[in-house]
Design goal:
Shape of chain B: globular
Largest sheet of chain A: 10 strands, mixed
Number of helices of chain B: 9
Oligomer: heterodimer
Strand content of chain B: 5-15%
Structural class of chain A: alpha+beta
Number of strands of chain A: 16
Radius of gyration of chain B: 25 Å
Distance between the termini of chain B: 101 Å
Helix content of chain B: 40-55%
Largest sheet of chain B: 4 strands, parallel
Order of helices and strands of chain B: HEHEHEEEEEEHHEHEHEHEH
Distance between the termini of chain A: 59 Å
Helix content of chain A: 40-55%
Order of helices and strands of chain A: HHEHEHEEHEEHEEEHEEEEEEHEHHH
């Protein structure tokens, strides 16, 4: 067999019909890549979702959607979920069976969620600082790595919270927060959030504020003084929009902070017995709050996701089958159209093996090229998936 | 295909909700450091911690020696040092107002008075205010010199011993043994103070500062406080305030937080009011003694009340 000659003729044919060849390779490659990409992405999503859920033993929050509560406490989305009071969350740790980490993920600053929590959150998630340190006092905040990068802010700078509604004069007051540190990137929602003390988030919520001492305000700012010493101030008294060493003592809470809201609380039971006992408290007919195992909620979520994935893979399989059938048809038609070409070659003295090689060259080339491209894309997907996944998730 | 399209649209949303950090499970309570650092907010707690921990921990009481730790405002660096401590021991009962605005790790913080929060004494403040149509509110407080009731001091010491034992289980036996020794001293103080209080009975006493609430309640003493400072000689206004109180509270002894100025003693003596020092010892004693010795000295000073002026 004249292998070099047959190879040359085969390539010439493909070059002559490059449009058809490229389309065939693309169709076959896509039909192979898509199922893999879907399965791979679902697997990665599952791994990552589960890793954060698995590392969070229990989540406490108001009754409502379990999924929304888990997403609010773990991924800081769903800011409008119902809240529980701080004292309700504290009752879970009152008997020494667990520790709680409060989460108040309701507000935002320049498009990034502001998470009111405690310093224990950093220990729990094993977060470290790339610069600066943790928030020190009321009005301080810590930036996630992506927030700091996108806003170009660092320790010593300030970040102003976003009011609920621009023209709502009675709404939340923007607070100018001092940035004390930036977290090292971890490739998750923590990169994309601003962290502050829970009490700072309550200041943002308007539940605490600071202003000039009532007794020393100007007379024109006082509406009156009652017999018991109560002073009514008018709305002209300017509230501080930034906590500084000079005015920090004037900040005070209106009402009992035990009644203040949390969107969720991460609950860390001391042992499995404590976990079981705590879970037992929320199995009544009409519980006022819910205590969830994020892992179980993720199981339920992925049961659904896997069912959809299987259907998608089935559909993609059918598409791949259709593509393969069409490719076979194209090859058959192509060979039929080339019948005279093969006859001429035989007439010119080409041996039968050379003709057979030419007949199978197009199909072999297209299939091998498709497999090569698929392998390359799969390798790239696998190598780069941590990167794009963290970009997506942050 | 529609299904696959929907799925491919939904999937990035799902992926956008995820992260890949790895966290550990459970609650990390044990202290890993061989020489743990323990921060305290006042001297009584530092003393208790030193007695209980012995050489097993470094006890830090960072407030300056020349002020009242209750009103100390630590700097950012000092707050940062608190945050990094292995254990932070608070007095609770609103002691050290800075703790209400500082961010402290709750997992490494012990409120030593949390166990008897129902026994706190409320201090009402006259000035309340409202903002426009808002709800009226007052910045009322809680009496915080809890350790002058020696039975409460014992509970605070127990809270420290338990916190240390929980976080350093390999040294728990030592901590409990040391606490038992300290408890004996505190019980003895409590018994002696109770005996003294019986002798003092219900005779009216003045206090130079409102810091003796727990002490007077625990031992049934009849105390009315003014706002005087030991180093400041009371002026006419202050004396008039005392005279006004004397109408309903005819005290013949003034309990001082520290050694009063000689002129203050003289001015009181002119009104047949004797002076005696009962140092709450919120800060380290200037004479180099310790909390227990200071309390013993306080009790010795109070003997004067039972033996006449």
């Amino acid at each position: 067999m004249n292998f070099a000659g047959a190879f040359h003729l085969g390539l010439c044919y493909l070059r002559r019909h490059r449009g058809k060849t490229v389309l065939l390779i693309a169709a076959i490659s896509l039909s192979l890549i898509l199922p893999f990409a879907v399965a791979h992405t679902v697997r990665l999503a599952e791994q990552h979702l589960r890793s954060r859920a698995d590392s969070t033993p229990l989540v406490f929050g108001a009754v409502g959607s379990e999924l929304e509560l888990v997403f609010n406490s773990l991924y800081f989305t769903k800011p409008d979920i119902n809240s529980v009071t701080a004292s309700e969350a504290e009752t879970l740790s009152a008997e020494g069976m667990s520790r709680i980490i409060p989460i108040h993920a309701r507000f935002s600053a320049r498009g990034f969620p502001v998470i009111g929590t405690s310093l224990d959150y950093f220990d729990f998630r094993q977060l470290t600082f790339s610069s600066g340190d943790a928030f020190i006092r009321l009005g301080d905040c810590v930036l996630g790595a992506k927030v700091a990068k996108e806003l170009g802010l660092g320790p010593g700078d300030h970040l102003i919270t976003t009011p609920d509604a621009l023209f709502d004069m009675a709404g939340t007051f923007p607070l100018k927060m001092r940035i004390t540190g930036v977290l090292a990137a971890v490739g998750g929602p923590d990169d994309n959030a601003v962290f502050a003390d829970t009490r700072t988030s309550w200041v943002v919520a308007g539940l605490a504020h600071g202003h000039q001492d009532a007794a020393s305000t100007d007379a024109d700012q006082k509406l009156g003084e009652s017999d018991d010493g109560s002073i009514a101030l008018n709305a002209a008294v300017v509230e501080y929009n930034e906590v500084t060493p000079d005015n920090i003592d004037s900040f005070h809470f209106h009402g009992d902070s035990a009644d203040f809201p949390l969107t969720a609380a991460i609950v860390l039971p001391h042992d499995s017995r404590a976990e079981t006992l705590l879970m037992g408290r929320f199995t009544g007919n009409e519980p006022s709050a819910q205590l969830l195992r994020p892992r179980s909620v993720m199981d339920d979520l992925f049961d659904t996701v896997f069912r959809i994935r299987d259907l998608v893979l089935l559909a993609l399989g059918a598409v791949a089958l259709a593509a393969a059938t069409i490719a076979i048809l194209v090859f058959a038609l192509s060979n039929r159209l080339r019948t005279r070409e093969f006859q001429n070659l035989e007439n010119l003295g080409a041996d039968p093996s050379t003709v057979r090689f030419l007949v199978s060259f197009e199909a072999t080339f297209v299939i091998l090229s498709s497999l090569a491209i698929t392998a390359m894309v799969v390798a790239i997907l696998q190598l780069t998936s941590p990167l794009w996944l963290s970009t997506f998730s942050a | 295909m529609k299904l696959s399209f929907t799925f491919l649209v939904v999937l990035p949303g799902l992926v956008a909700l995820i992260s890949c950090d790895s966290s550990k499970d459970g609650s990390p309570r044990a202290i890993a450091s061989a020489n743990p650092v323990i921060q305290t907010v006042n001297y009584p707690l530092a003393y208790f911690a030193e007695r209980i921990a012995g050489d097993n921990a470094e006890i830090i009481f960072a407030a300056p020696a020349d002020g009242d730790p209750a009103f100390w405002k630590p700097s950012d660096d000092e707050l940062s040092a608190f945050q990094k401590a292995d254990l932070i021991i608070l007095n609770g009962a609103t002691y050290a107002k800075w703790t209400t605005t500082a961010s402290l790790p709750s997992g490494r913080t012990v409120d030593t008075s949390a166990g008897f929060a129902d026994k706190f004494i409320s201090v009402t403040e006259a000035t309340t205010h409202t903002h426009g149509d808002g709800e009226a509110h007052a910045h009322a407080g809680t009496a915080f010199t809890t350790w002058l009731d020696f039975s409460l001091a014992k509970q605070q010491a127990k809270a420290i011993a338990d916190a240390l034992s929980e976080r350093l289980p390999d040294r728990a036996e030592t901590f409990q043994k040391n606490f038992t020794t300290l408890a004996v001293d505190l019980d003895s103080l409590d018994a002696d103070m109770m005996a003294l209080a019986k002798k003092i009975s219900d005779q009216p006493l003045f206090a130079s500062h409102p810091v003796y609430q727990y002490w007077s309640r625990a031992y049934g003493l009849n105390v009315d406080a003014v706002h005087w400072e030991p180093e400041t000689v009371p002026d006419t206004g202050a004396l008039n305030e005392l005279i006004k109180k004397s109408v309903t509270h005819d005290g013949i002894w003034m309990i001082w937080e520290g050694e009063p100025a000689a002129e203050s003693i003289e001015k009181l003596q002119q009104r047949n009011i004797g002076s005696v020092v009962f140092d709450p010892c919120g800060n380290r004693p200037e004479d180099g003694s310790d909390w227990l010795a200071t309390m013993r000295k306080n009790l010795a000073n109070l003997e004067t009340l039972t033996s006449g002026q």
